[in-house]
Known about the structure:
The chain is mostly helical. Helices cover 61% and strands 0% of the residues.
Amino acid sequence: MDTLTHEQIKEFCQVGDGLLESGDYKAAIGQYNLAWELIPDPKLTGRRRHGNLPLSAMPVFLGDSSPRQKKLLSMR
């Protein structure tokens, strides 16, 4: 992955994290989805392929079962 794409992914995730903290779950998911779209295929193969994603975004992509992530995923 090129540096520009990686920086764009991190930026989308940082914005998503801020929205998540403020309680705007739908907007946070939108930012995480924009980041996800930039990740080259294959996005996942068995284990977490792209360890360079911010940890706060990874559960959204992988369907983590934490209470915060359950709330996010239920808003999809």
